[in-house]
Amino acid sequence: MAKAEPPFANASVGAAFDGQPALLALRAMIFDVARELASVGEIIESLKWGQPSYATKTGTPIRLGHSKGGAPAIFAHCQSSVISDFAAVFGQDFEIDGTRAVHLDPDSIDAQDGPLRKLIASALTYRL
User: In the predicted model, what is the mean pLDDT of the chain?
Assistant: First the structure.
C-alpha cells in the first residue's frame, strides 16, 4: 500500500503544483525514494526560483519545473555531477540539458520510474 505524501511545506509550494500532475508524480517519487533510503533523513521542501525544491543534508538540491519548451523537468545544481552521471547511463532514453536538467515526457514518467528513482537517489545522497 502506498504511503500518503506529506502535506506541502506551505501554500506557495502547493500552488506551484496546481494543474501539474506530472510534477506531482515526481514529488511523490522523491518522498518515496527518500523513505527507502535510511541515510537521507529529512527532506526540506521549499520554493527556489519559483520551483519546488527538495534538499537534504546528505544530498544536493533538486528542483521540479518545466523546460523552456514546457516539458516537465528535474533540475540539479549544475556544478554537481548528478545530471552528467545520469546522462552517462540513461542519456539515450532522456532529453538531457547539459549538466542542469533532465526533460521528461509527461506521459512516460511512470514507465521511466526505474531510471528516475536512480536520479533522485543520486541527488538525495550526493554528499555521502
Answer: 93
